[in-house]
Specification:
This protein has 98 residues and is mainly α. It has one domain. The protein is 81% helix and 0% strand. The chain contains 4 helices and no strands.
Length: 98
Amino acid sequence: MERIGEIGLRRALGARALHITWQFLPESAALGLVGGSAGTSLGTAVVVGVSFHNEWTPVLDPATLAAAPALGLATGLLVGLYPSWRASRIQPVEALRN
């Protein structure tokens, strides 16, 4: 809703609802992917750091390390569906009025 002026301008210039949806959906997917990757990196670093400190052997499952960013991407897509759909339904005149 913070970008309602941008949505209204794009709709007034001829962007269809699908264009608006495809503007916001990749953004939320990218944020989910970056968040999943950052969480995976931070989690791996903590496991390795604690293992090193306690003189343990770190055990990391490669499937989990690969699945975590993908899960972040899927979460970003899922969470971005409703806002992108709602943004695509805003009428240009109503959006430019705000």
